[in-house]
Every structure is written in structure tokens, then in C-alpha cells.
Amino acid sequence: DEGPVESWHKSVCRYCGTGCGVKLGLTKGKVVRVKGDTAAHNKGVICIKGSTLADLTQLEGRLTVPKIRTEGRLVETTWEAAMDLIASKFKENIELYGPDSVAFYGSGQLYIEESYTANKLFKAGIGTNNVDGNPRLCMASAAVGYTQTFGKDEPPGAYADIDHADCFFLMGANMYECHPPLWERMMIRKKSHPQTKIIVVDPRKTKTAEHSDIFLPVYPGTDLLLLNAMAYVIVKEGWYNKTFVKEHINFHNGQREVDFATYIRFLEDYAPEKVARKLGIPPRQIEEVAHWFATSQATMSMWTMGVNQRTQGVFLNNTLNSLHLITGQICRPGATPLSLTGQSNACGGVRDTGSLSHILPHGRMVANAHHRQEMEQLWGVPAGSISPKPGYDAVNLFKAMGEEKVKAALVMCTNPAQSMPNLAEAKKAMEKCFLVVADVFEDTETTKLADVVLPAALYLEKEGVYGQSERRYQLIEKLMDPPGQARSDFDILVDFAKRLGYGNLIQYSTPAECWEEYRNLSAASKYNFKGITRERLQKERGIQWPCPDENHPGTVRRYIQGDPFVQEGREIQFYGKPDHRAVVFLRPYIPTQQQLSEEFPYYLTTGRVVEQWHTGTMTDKIPALSEGSGRGVFVLHPSDAKKLQVAEEDLLEVSSQYGSMKGKVKISENETPGVIFAAFFDNKFLINLIVADNYDPVSKEPEYKVTAVSAKKY
Ligand code: SF4
């Protein structure tokens, strides 16, 4: 307790995509108290991570001065010298090897104004689409899934649907630990409506699964079999919504439109009795969940990395959306698919600003000439300024660094030297590149590899907008000054643009001016949030887009009356598609490349623990969080422990085709036999060294969840 609070301030949690509204109590310029904001969508609930935000703002180990690597050591320098060096290196490479020899690798934690500025600078100025970032690793499959199904990215529904659903279908999502306020909201719903069913699909018996009504512990990598089998049962039993199918859906096999009869034939391979053995669950359970899904008053699906981080991530997302479409469990309160996000600003900052290597702002695609032309006009740059060639996605960007095709890169607000799969290769690649890293802390795995490090301001030491999973934009106001010479990523980017000669392109100099440009630009799209002014964001507790004018309250549910893009007289309109019909794709199950073999008879799967967030650069420095999080452990089922002749605390060596790691054994009944779990937050236990880097062919999101491994006592 640091004494009485001088003033309370409306803000947002720094961490996950739940985007909890918080109230921060300030005394003498320091955050001393944190509480959940009862006026926000999280209704005052925050998790253990959010409750330690005050500690986050007072951590030691901050980078306060720019540094340049000299004779192997990072040596303090001035901003002038650091920025001059960066600009000259980038210019030199662009001149000698072309614009595609440089890259920006960003983050779903940068503010919208920061990602937008980097994207504009690189794509419209420098002329390369080599703009990617860590959202590629977490929600690219969800983004492609929505875009293919509805013609537009971002979810149709919202957290508010939790209050109306009576069947929750949770797949590859440990909401109890990773999105606790949303879990709590679900529990409130269940308490007031005890008939509410919670279905959990996960290879691990997580805390979420423990609290479910039905738990389907499917074998890793097989769950598309489950979704197709559910569709089979729904159609066979006549539980699909015939009117909805007739009025709002097209069927597509990936090459062309097909009819409903073809869809039925496609599903025949997925009859429960045909797939149950591979899934590791009885056919009866598939029939039961299909029944609940289709016949409840309102079914809401939520999912995260267990679905997205897969080589069939896009197919899984398509098929989840399809189940809602064929049953008509969509476009009603409580009936909706809703992908949850891991990062605070992956949706608003990266998906909506188009800051990935294949997209442009507000749902436009790099490969689409008309979309490039629209953005060139909106950005006021000559025709042809934006390259028609999509840039490198995350995995291939680091490979390109290794092959010395990308020779200089600016990394902001992320830690790829811990988070990339097949990590040894990614780290070697970074060593070959002129690597500039802007970060808050000095000791991340990535700053250790940097040629130049730039001290960045922490959130609350700068202002900007976050956009969370449900299309909600919230402003974070500056409450304190950054330490030493640290600067906001926004200021660094504006300075960098000037030094590269793009001062005319990036004319704004404050985040508020940038927001003004960006919200006005959105009016030329179906994202339209022109009505979300800075002044409204200061006053209101977040606004959901579309929101075309200043009197518009924002849009909770899309594609229905109330969404400003749905024509009057139409109850439902999937306006992202030219004929206003959503698409049900016929998506076949294809086994993962990570096949089990005599050499690699187990599956390794990775994930988070409640106390830690991502690579732990922030949370692992906070004693209240780091102490209980259990580090350096492989968790396995008692039957596997017996087979491997290991006991609790023994050392286990786990190997994949990428390398070997040693960790302590933890035995848990909650693991599925044949599956080993490890958390990825710990920089003393870099599990990604042995995680596979195969990825979804469309979203390019890596398959962190399924790596074939061997295990033996060490
Ligand atoms: Fe922060 Fe996410 Fe926890 Fe909410 S759920 S308090 S946003 S970490």
C-alpha cells in the first residue's frame, strides 16, 4: 500500500485481448492501485495479471538510453547517432538491394497509431510489403477464416453475446486461465440459466475443461474430423436451419460453388463411427455435442490458439463458422462465432490497420490491384507506390534474414528470439541481419541479438488506442513520463520516417493527429469508424465499430439490422460478399505433417499459464506472478510417466527433429496419454527451440500446438 490515491484514471489492461477496462490510482505520478472498471465490458473483473499493473509500471531493468553494438557489446550512444545509423543502414540496403531487403516486424501490443505509421511508411513510402509481426503467430488463421466466410475480417458478435447464450462451444481455448473475466461472465450466465451447457474440446483437461458439462479430449491435430462429423450429424438428423441455408449461404469446395447435395456427400466420410477412433472419443459424444450445438436457443463458439496455431487453422476457422451458418446459430443475441485474441491490440492494431505482409488497411489485400489503388489514393502517393508482391510472413521473414535476402529489420514491442518456432534457426537468422530492436526492457532474448537497441516507452508512458477482440476501440491516456531517454514507438517511427525522407508521407506528429487521419480514412471502407473521435474515446468506455458518425453508438453485432451497412428492410445481410451470402466451405481433414513415428512417438503441445503472459518479459519480472508459475517443466500423464520410468521432478529429455530440451517431470492426470505439455513464457526454458515451424498454407500461422517428439529419462 503506497498511501492514499491522489487521482483515479480510466485505462485498459496492458496484456491480453480481453481488453479489460481498469481504473488506475495515481499518487505522486506513480500508479499505486488498480481495480477493474465496473463500467467496462469486463464488469469490474480483472485477472491476476491485470491486478499487478502497478508493479509493471515500476519495474527495474528498463532500457533508458539507445545503444549500438560495438565490438560485441551494446554501448550507450545518443538518439541522434542511433537514428542516423539506422536510417543510413536502411537507405544503403534499399539503394543496393531494393526495398524488399528491409523489413518491419511489429506486434499486437503496439498502439494502433504506431502500427498504422509503420505500415504506411514501409508499404506506401519505402515500397515493400515486408511488414509482419507476432499476430501472424496467434490469430492469422482466424482473420483468414472470417474473411473467407464473411468477406470481411473481425467477428460478427461480441462479448455481450455471453449473456444470452445457452450453449458454449469452446475449442482449443483455456478461458479459465487465459481470459478469466470472460470465463467469469460465462459462469454468471450459467448460474442464472442452469440449463446452459459448456462443451470443451481440448487435448488437455485444462481448468476450463474441468468445469465443463462435456469434455471432448480429442487427440492433437484431429479436431477438423470432429467439426465435420458434427456437421454430418446435424445434416443427417435434419437439425440444420433450412430457411437460413436457403436465404443466406453459398457452398464452396475451395475451387467453385457447389450445391447442398455435394456438401452432404462430402460429409459422408465424417460419419461419427468413421472418425471417432482417430479422435479418441466415442461416436455418441459427437452426436450429443452436435445436438446441443444445433438445437440450443443460442450457441456461442469461442476459440483461441488450439484452433489457430495449426496447419489446418484456416480450415478449422472456416468450419467453425460453417457450423454456425448451417444451424442458423448466428446473427441473434448469444448465437455467434467469436475468436478470442491473445494480445491487447492484435485486432485493432494489426488486423484493422492491415499491418501484415499480405494485407492493407480495413480488409484490403496487397494482391488486389483495386485495393492498392484505393490505398494509394487515400495515402496520396503516386500510382504504383505499393508493391503488388506480398511481403514475407513471420516464418519466412526470419528465413529470409538467414538467407540474407532481408538485410535490415526494425523489431518493435515483441520478442521473436523467444517466440518463433524452430527457434535456433530463427536466432541464427537474426544474427545475420542488421537488427534494430525497440523495447522497454534491456534483457529480452531479442535485444541480446540486436545491433541497435532503442529504449521504448511503456504503455501509460505514451498515448494511443487499443482495439480488442470484439471490434472495441479504447484509448489509453499518458499518465507518466518514460524513464531516462526512452521514447514512444510512435515518436521513433515518425523520426525514422523523416530521416528516410518520408516526412511528406508521415505529416502528423502526435498520436491524436494520426488517429484523425486514420479514422477519416476508415470511412472509405466497411470498417467505417469515422464516428470514433478522440474526444469520444476520452469520455466513453470503448466503442465498437462500425461507427460511421459521431452520434452513432457503435455496433455490437454485425450483419443484422442495427449494423449501419445492412440495408433497411433486410434482417440479415452478409455484405462482405458481393451477393450478400456467407460461404460454407467443404474443408477436408488433412493430417498434420508432424506425424508420430517410432522415432517420435509423443506429441508436444505448448501454451500459457495463468500467471504469465507471452514470453514473460513483463510478467516474469513481477514476483507475485513469477513465483507460482512453475518453470522448466514437462507435464505428462501418469501412464506415460510409467512407460518412460520417470517420477515427479526427474529430468526428462524431449527431442524433436529440431533439437532437444531437458526439463523436470510433472505428472498430471489432466494430460492426455501420449501428449506432453510445456509453457513458453520462460526464457530459461526456450521450448520453441524444439517446436515445429510448419504452418497453415494460407494464413502462414505456425503449428505450435503439434510437434512430434521423443522423450526419455535424462
Ligand atoms: Fe488483463 Fe487479460 Fe487479465 Fe483482463 S483478462 S485483466 S485484459 S490479462
What is the CA-atom radius of gyration, in angstroms? Answer: 24 Å
Beta content: 15-25%
Q: Structural class, from helix and strand content? A: alpha/beta
Shape label: globular
The averaged pLDDT comes out at 96
Per DSSP E runs of 2 or more residues, the count of β-strands stands at: 29
Question: What would you say about this model in short?
Answer:
It is built from 24 helices and 29 strands.
Can you characterise this structure?
It comes from Rapidithrix thailandica. GO terms for molecular function: 4 iron, 4 sulfur cluster binding; molybdenum ion binding; molybdopterin cofactor binding; nitrate reductase activity. This is Nitrate reductase. Residues 6-61 form the 4Fe-4S Mo/W bis-MGD-type domain. The chain is an alpha/beta fold and 714 residues long. The chain folds into four domains: 7-56, N-terminal domain of TfIIb, CATH 2.20.25.90; 67-137 and 345-507, Rossmann fold (3-Layer(aba) Sandwich); 140-340, Dimethylsulfoxide Reductase, domain 2 (3-Layer(aba) Sandwich), CATH 3.40.228; 602-713, Barwin-like endoglucanases. The chain contains 24 helices and 29 strands. A seven-stranded mixed sheet has the order 5-4-19-18-17-6-7, with helices on both faces. The longest helix has 19 residues, at 79-97. It binds iron/sulfur cluster (SF4). The site of iron/sulfur cluster has 13 residues, from α6. Iron/sulfur cluster (SF4) binds next to α6.
